[in-house]
């Protein structure tokens, strides 16, 4: 389902998250590990205010491992606890409870001192569309629970999902909007498949991804499309021609079909044919 993020919807989405914050101890802010900055909500710090938070870099299986490590370090320096996980296989999930306990230790110690037995930690997953919120909830619950999160305008009864003895999750994640105002962010969201292909011109998205690969992963481009010398193909049009020819993207008259080439190239990127690519890098 595509959400049209009008200002009214943003305000409503924000209100829904703020309401839920009253019920929970900790926020799990879910982002896409390939674009940890570009897949964050622009107002997230303001929205969650003083609540404890873990920044969860999901889909780590698709991101460049060394860059993910740099991100974790970067966030540590910013005072933000972060971990990388793969919700599809469950890799990294154990750290979530462990880290939550660490972050909430003081509060829990205080409760113990008052003679109150600490209850399970209560958490809310928030994030922009498509970062894997439902997949994570289902994984933590050990069954298929989460279907859709809060759509702006739709109010749903809250209920808790128990995941083991130590953690309870709100069953509907908070859906927040991405940073659309920045064109590059839009291109990154499109390149990773986070937004619908109809929203941006696919040739623009492909050209952006090609430039990014020339800069950061030239060998992979050369290997995949048998390019001998990338410096001669720096012109994006030449690269389109080369890839179009190699991948058989020709129109009736034998000319390169650029739309088809863009589609094939983007599919290669999204299906890891060019390896694991991180489109956001710290300090860039
Ligand atoms: N490779 C990989 N794919 C994942 C992972 N987590 C989720 N996905 C896929 O990402 C897509 C989006 O996942 P969802 O769980 O529907 O994302 P969501 O955040 O709930 O999306 P909305 O309901 O649109 O807000 C699905 O195709 C999932 O299978 C992961 O860790 N690795």
TrEMBL record:
Principal cellular location given in the protein's record: cytoplasm
Pfam hit, one: MMR_HSR1
Keyword check for RNA-binding: yes
A single MF term (Gene Ontology): RNA binding
GO cellular component entries: cytoplasm
The keyword GTP-binding is annotated on this UniProt entry: yes
GO biological process, one term: ribosome biogenesis
SUPFAM superfamilies, per the entry: P-loop containing nucleoside triphosphate hydrolases
Stated family: Belongs to the TRAFAC class YlqF/YawG GTPase family. MTG1 subfamily.
Subunit structure, as described in the record: Interacts with ctc. Interacts with the immature 50S ribosome subunit. 2 molecules of rbgA bind to one 50S subunit.
Function statement: Essential protein that is required for a late step of 50S ribosomal subunit assembly. Has GTPase activity that is stimulated by interaction with the immature 50S ribosome subunit. Binds to the 23S rRNA. Required for the association of ribosomal proteins rplP and rpmA with the large subunit.
PANTHER family per record: MITOCHONDRIAL RIBOSOME-ASSOCIATED GTPASE 1 (PTHR45782)
Name this protein carries in UniProt: Ribosome biogenesis GTPase A
